[in-house]
Amino acid sequence: MPLVEKRPKQELRSPSVSHGDDNGEKQQHRKIQKPGPLPLPAPPPRSAGVSEGSGRPRTRSAAPVVGKVDVALPSQQSKANQLSGEILRVNGPSSQTERVNPEDTVKIRTLGFGSSGKVYKVQHKKTNKVYALKIIQDKHEPAVCKQILTEMDILRRARNPYVVQCYGASEKGGEISFLLEYMDGGSLADILKSNKVISERYLADIAMKVLKGLDYLHRNKIVHRDIKPSNILLGRNQEVKIADFGVSTVLASTLAPCNTFVGTCAYMSPERFDPDNQGGHYNGYAADIWSLGLSLLECAIGHYPFISPEEKPDWPTLMFAICYNPSPSPPENASPEFKDFINQCLRKDPFLRPRASTLLAHPFITQYEVVPSSRAHSQQSGGRFWGNFTKALTSIFS
Question: The pTM is what?
Answer without folding.
Answer: 0.70
